[in-house]
Write a structure and sequence with these properties.
Blueprint lengths: L1 E6 L2 H15 L5 E6 L12 H6 L5 E3 L9 H21 L4 E5 L3 H10 L6 E4 L10 H11 L2 E4 L2 H11 L5 E3 L16 H7 L7 E5 L10 H15 L4 E5 L7 H14 L4 E4 L4 H10 L2 E4 L2 H5 L7 E5 L12 E4 L3 H12 L15 H12 L1
Parallel strand pairs: 1-2, 1-4, 2-3, 4-5, 5-6, 6-7, 8-9, 8-11, 9-10, 11-12, 12-13
Helix pairs in contact: 1-13, 3-4, 4-5, 8-9, 8-12
Amino acid sequence: MRIGILTSSRADYGIYLPLLEKMKSDSFFEMEIIAFGTHLSKGHGYTVKDIEKDGYSCIHSISSLISNDDEQSIASSYGLTVLKFADFWASRTYDLVFCLGDRFEMSAAVQAGIPFGVKFAHIHGGETTLGAIDNVYRHQITLASMLHFTATDVFRGKVIDLLGSSEGIYSVGALSLNDIKSFVPIDKATFLEKFSIPKEEFALVTFHPETMSVHENVQYAQAMKNSLATISEIIFVIITLPNADTQGSVYREAIEQLKKKFPDRILLIENFGKVNYFSAMHYAKILIGNTSSGILEAASFGKYVVNVGDRQKGRVQSDNVFNCEFKETTIIAVVTKAISFERYNGKNVYFKEEVADNIIKIVKEFL
């Protein structure tokens, strides 16, 4: 059976990996990767090259992003992505196409497939992020899909409410945690040397813009910059750079200014890749920012998370998450408190066994 895999960023590709590895070795599937979005952006690491290294037999590359990240450019990129995928869906047919998450590019690719009757399977539907416009895109993708693989029972219930039916909706757990019990991090000395990280505790930091608070992002980026300047005096700071969201450049500029001012206390990473990122999470003392990995994955690594602002507001959380508002003094205070705690030993509400195997079983029954 011919399966398409829509991947628009380093983040969703890393989540997909456990499923892709199993499908690649299963003769039931003829799998084709459809790479677009920031994968084709040199400003975001041109990560399609990492996909190519993984040895898939067929990779389609579709370039549609506009370099600017203001509202008009994001809307234009959305429209261009729809146009590019109108041509693509007209020339390719699949038994099933996987889509994941809530990115605007992913929504555009899926919307273009509706007139062609493309059968979509959506991973990570039903979630809520009140500080990001991704809520709208996520629900659009859900409405266009016929198979749904949610990360928790709560999210399955939300998809059922949205669609008015329970047919084709499965709660399987977070796919990114599929191999978490067997995950072996890179040797610590090797990891530190590879990225020139000093032999001391470090915080792993990722901030994205709040796309539902466009006019506040300048002050939020400044609060981030000022708080991290103080925090870097307490603990070394590793920052993974933001995605291509509306006003993402505002945060990038603030982060780059921070790096120039504190070159020995700040490390910037454009794209870790999954193994390096999970290794960084394994060795980190704490996570700081507003990224979904802090909510979904950090608990499985025994890490506390300082979740800033409203971007992830509405997502189910484990007990390792400290929420705080986007204010310099508040961020510093909560981080200082969280650093004082030892390892988190509670459960991760997103973890379930054999996620990838269960998805494959359901897909085979469906097809």
